[in-house]
Amino acid sequence: MYEESGNETKEALVSAFAEFGGTYLRDIWLFDQSDHEQLFLREDVAEKLEAVDVEKFVDNERYGFITQDTYDQLYYATYQYTVRGFDDFEQFRMFFDDDRHVGVFASFDRQPGGHDYESLHSHVTDIASGYDVPIVTSETE
Description:
Structural class: alpha+beta
Distance between the termini: 19 Å
Largest sheet: 5 strands, antiparallel
């Protein structure tokens, strides 16, 4: 990936998630095997996350790299994304087709009738195909 396209790629990701979720979008996180980067965080969600160990939360999402490989070996279909339902929001996670193991997850407020996560996956995949896979910038840099 070219360093100068990193921010452009991340802006395109934020735009794709914001277009999909509108005011329901709560947060967006980019992560790899060792770091994570917050791309978007709604103010009311930031207040709730003050009591959460974000690093531990992201570590849990990293298990997806292992399960993705397992699914690819066990099933005849290719893994695309995961959605988790919580009492006041839903979380979407997907990985980019890349040997560096980079993923993104975002959460959305629940809405009547639900969200079309297949369309989100397709939209993000289409947009990401026009960019290099983003590099995660450590929160401490």
